[in-house]
Design brief:
NuBaID_N; three-stranded antiparallel β-sheet; zinc ion binding; alpha+beta; nucleus; C3HC-type domain-containing protein
Amino acid sequence: MYLAEVAEGTPRVLKQYMKIFDSPSAHEPDYTLKLQSAPVTPTKYETHPDIQFFRLVKTKHHYAYHKSKLALSATEENIDHMNSRLSGFEPFNREQLLQRLRSFNALNWHIPSGKNTGVQLNELLCAVNGWTCQSIARNNNVKNHLSCSKCGNELILRFNAEEEQPEYAPFHFDLEDIQAVNLNLKAQYAQQVQALGHQSSCPWTKVLTPINTVYYLTPYLASTNESLIKLHTKTLKSLFDNLMIIQEHAGFLSLLCPKPKLISTYADFCRASNLWLLSRYFNNDKENFGTILSKSCPAWLYCISAMGWDVYTQEFNSQTVLLMICQSCNQRIFLQKSAGSDDSGSGNQEHPKVLTPCEYTAAIPHASSKFSNEYMDEVTEEDEQDIDPYLGHKQWCCQVSDMAGQPYFDYFMNMVASLEEYIGPNGEYLKDRDESLDMDIDACTKHSKRRASFDLQEELERFRKLRKPYFAD
């Protein structure tokens, strides 16, 4: 059957199109095409049955098409809204855990001393269960005011005052009885913080942040090394920028440095820290800044950074205060109190990070320990001799807990000193060069016991023996 026979019963418009397609010029590409507007149906074809048919189809499905588009956009908005709501519940996010811990300070959080036999009520317990502590403000003058980051429930932990009771009080209680009541209250509040204080549908009642893997990091892992080095370089950069300010307190700050076991390893640790710092923050001018670091950066600054201490300023009732804050437990140590900020320095001088001003006067007395949550008094030379650098942190802080059976500072110093070849072009940690599968390692002190004791050939031989019963040759 020929094409003419097929097209014999077609309308006149389609015949004209068939002639155009059959012509030789229709098969040749037209290189003279220009941008034109959409074709408009001529008036004489308005009554054509095919055009009217497709126009009816378009009209019929026009509303459904736009409705589906609106539904799709609404679904995307709901997904974004759900993601924003889920931001308050990320139990395995370490950064959010540290942010919740930073909301606890001496102004808005105070728990009576004493330990009960059950779960200890502290800032870490509240933070891993999704609680943040509300700041003291004009509309909130209550301490221990907790708020859930997900369901929004609030808790106010109230305790009996342990100070001396006034003479006009109708009843007088012994201090031991008051402490016993507070211990019972702490046990009850610990249960509310863990589950009872949340709404029944709150996800924090089902899943909480695991302390041993998120807060207390697992040693010998690439992710642990990357997190610790990232925090160390960031803190070291801040301390180096404010070296002229904290140099006046070098004698006191050097007491916060644990003494290294090997001086040679400590020198390697300082050199590796400089390489990480230069690659991450001074990559464009390593030579000049490297010379400055080697000549002007004191050794105790690297130790302060490794232990998580960073410098901040905060205004207390028009008085500017210089303080050191631990990045892991939010412990605060006051260094200086002055009448106002000193702007006599050079214009290029970096200033410490500024915290939210406080309308209260910073006059917090000493507690029984050398290190209270926050204190203002200057430490005398006699007291400085008795300071343990690990007591500056809170008892549960990860900076004072052992890692791999050794003190945290020794582990961190050895780890940084042994990872110079893992520095990327821009200061990133090269995970693809992980030594955990490099089995040809001599028993050097800078390598971990786990890597030194692992034998790849022995494990492959054991795998072949286990494979034979299951796979026939």
